[in-house]
Amino acid sequence: xxxxFEYSTPELVRMLGTRFKEYRMRCNLTQKEVSELSxxxxxxxxxxxxxxxxxxxxxxxxxxxxxxxxxxxxDDLLPELPESPYLMRKDEKKAQRIRHTK
Length: 102
Description:
This protein is mainly α. 48% of the residues lie in helices and 0% in strands.
């Protein structure tokens, strides 16, 4: 298992682009087809897959995940957490924000 803390953000984006390309190819899709299905520009997809995209918006990444059928993998990335007793106030309402006392 990789320690992703060792990588910079651009390196992580490059790794995701390479991995996305593998998923796209296993889905038997061309970059043009992904572009048409997602509404994301062909140049953006090309740069993302080849590691030359400096950054990619989260919404763009989510659109691409949908096209290759991996949008449900988000649950693995950030699974729902059970209710925390530490976030419950005395009046049984869930805390909306955390404030640190001075």
